[in-house]
Structure formats: C-alpha cells, structure tokens
Amino acid sequence: xxxxxxxxxxxxxxxxxxxxxxxxxxxxxxxxxxxxxxxxxxxxxxxxxxxxxxxxxxxxxxxxxxxxxxxxxxxxxxxxxxxxxxxxxxxxxxxxxxxxxxxxxxxxxxxxxxxxxxxxxxxxxxxxxxxxxxxxxxxxxxxxxxxxxxxxxxxxxxxxxxxxxxxxxxxxxxxxxxxxxxxxxxxxxxxxxxxxxxxxxxxxxxxxxxxxxxxxxxxxxxxxxxxxxxxxxxxxxxxxxxxxxxxxxxxxxxxxxxxxxxxxxxxxxxxxxxxxxxxxxxxxxxxxxxxxxxxxxxxxxxxxxxxxxxxxxxxxxxxxxxxxxxxxxxxxxxxxxxxxxxxxxxxxxxxxxxxxxxxxxxxxxxxxxxxxxx
Length: 374
Ligand code: IPM
Ligand code: MG
Fold this sequence. Notes:
Blueprint: E1 5-13, H1 17-35, E2 38-43, H2 48-54, H3 60-68, E3 71-76, H4 92-103, E4 108-115, H5 127-130, E5 134-141, E6 149-158, E7 164-171, H6 176-191, E8 196-201, H7 207-220, E9 227-232, H8 233-242, E10 249-252, H9 254-267, E11 275-281, E12 287-293, H10 310-322, H11 327-342, E13 345-346, E14 359-360, H12 363-373
Parallel strand pairs: 1-2, 1-3, 3-12, 5-10, 8-9, 8-10, 13-14
Antiparallel strand pairs: 4-5, 4-11, 6-7, 11-12
Helix pairs in contact: 1-10, 1-12, 6-7, 8-9, 10-11, 11-12
C-alpha cells in the first residue's frame, strides 16, 4: 500500500489559510512516517496569493498542478477588504474556488459535523439538547443551483414609472440527473452511518423543491434499508437548534447546504472544527477529491497564531480516506484530534473559561500536540 507516491496539491490561499495549512502538512508528514506512506506535496498560490504572485486568483500553473495531482488540499480564499477592488468575475471565491468546483466536477460536498462530549461547553445549546453528542453529515450539492444557474447578472432596467434602476438575477436550476446523483451519495453515506436521510427543500414554494422531493423519494426506493424524511429548509434551520440529534445524513441543494452547514458547525463548537470533502468523477472515470475547511479566511485573526487548525487537519484525514482509501491513517488523524480535545487543548474559538478542563493554545501548539498524538 505504501509504495505508490500520492501527489497532493496544497493550496493554502489567504488569511488564516497558510498557518492552518502548515499544521495540516506537519500532521500529514507524521502520519506518513507512521504508516510508511509516500506523499509528494507541492504548494502553490491561489486566491489573493495567486493574484499577487501571478496576476490571477487561479494561476495557470496552479491549475496545471491540480490536474497533475491525485488530490487537492485547499485552505481558504478571499479577503473582504481587497475583493471589491477588482471585477467580481476575478475575485477569488468565483475565479478560484467556484471555478475549481466546476472544472473538476466536484458535485458532492460532504461536511461531517461532530460534537464530542468533551466539547459540550463549546456548544451554544444546553446540554439536554445535545443528547449523547451531535453527529451528522451534511451532503451538499456543489455545482448546481443558485451558485451556477444562468442567467446570472446585474442589469439596468426601466421601471413602469420610467425610473431607471438596477436588477440582480440569480437562477436556481436543477436537472433530474443532478439531483439523482447527489441523492445516491447521501443514501450510500447513510448506509455507513445510522441509515437515515433527511432531505431538505422548499417544495411548498419552489419548483426546484418539488422536483428535488420527487426525485429523492424515487431514488430512496433503491435503498429500502435507509429511512428517508423531508423537511422544509426553514423548519430544518429550527430543528438544528431544537433537536439536532434527530439528524444523521442531511441532504441539501447548494445554497441551503451552505447555510445549514455553517449552522451545524456552530453546534459542533466552531466553524474551525468543520472539514469538508468535495468529490466528483473526472472524465477518466476517476474519483477526484478536493478537501477544505468549511470556514473562511478569517482575516481578523490571520497571522496571529490564533486560528484553529483542526478543520484543515481533519480535511487532510478526509483526503486520506476518500481519495486514497487509507482508512487507518485517516482514523489515526481523527483519533489524535480527539485525544488533544480530551486533554483540554483549545484554540480561542472553542475555549470556554467555564470548562475546568480547558487550556488555551495557539495554532502551532494545537498542530504540534496533534502531531505528538499521532
Ligand atoms: C463554503 C463557502 C463558499 C461557498 C464561499 C467562500 C464561496 O462559504 O464553502 O461554504 O459559499 O460555497
Ligand atoms: Mg459557506
């Protein structure tokens, strides 16, 4: 298993990206030593780092590197202070992140949300709502819906009373096959968990919601061992706060998944704990994966050794599992993270002074503790 070199493109990006990536690469190196794995990691600029180095958010050389690699480990891109200074099509979120998602057909975004008992103090919900711990998986469709639907533009129009105004248009559009393939991902994932899928839609208002619900219901027949229920997205947002333990796999279209996964991350203590895997099938019929923390660049704390590196580190564990089938090595990272959490190590985002067990640490100390626990 160890002889093949696994080529990883490491794109740290902006804000806290570089410092959390540094810790994740240390952890990968440690797990590589332990399991005798050969990683070939190449770093390249993306986002504002790409613009500064090569004039665009996704430099050609970075895209080429991604194409040559077996998997992409990504940090985060975009700086709210600088983004408005360039045309919107060139901004890092669209020109790098969304472009990569589309370019590599990464339609399935998996966001596992887990609140370990030891982090109970960091969850905004009362302990009685946390049950035995929150453990759910958001399966978010990632290449359709409002993010990519056409037309998408801002135009000048004349209102009936003659005044000129601007009108912004985004289009929510899904085809049946797009819904079918993400539904299959959710049902298969549920089989490996507690065998329950909650499908989220807005079928009481949106055409998209009706097609979504019909299609997911039909696909469910192929998975008789998995229970399916449906929730409207507004109700789901409320249920996450009232009874989060009812959820196992939560299946969402793109924008609903974006919103609900941030909400779910807060339940798990912090966005800084939430990894994600974006998977697709390439033209060569190969599963290709892109792994990133679900949080953003957090420019306010960037470069201060304050950021939580756990989401980035857990993203690298997802990469080992989904892209390389290295189940044990992935589990070693996840259990090392669990160990340091149990030991009470906390970056600022998950630190609660009321927790007698908690000890506040920086980005580097957290990364090094996880390395030591491998
Ligand atoms: C996410 C992020 C992105 C998204 C942004 C940065 C474009 O919020 O991955 O959840 O909206 O998909
Ligand atoms: Mg988001």
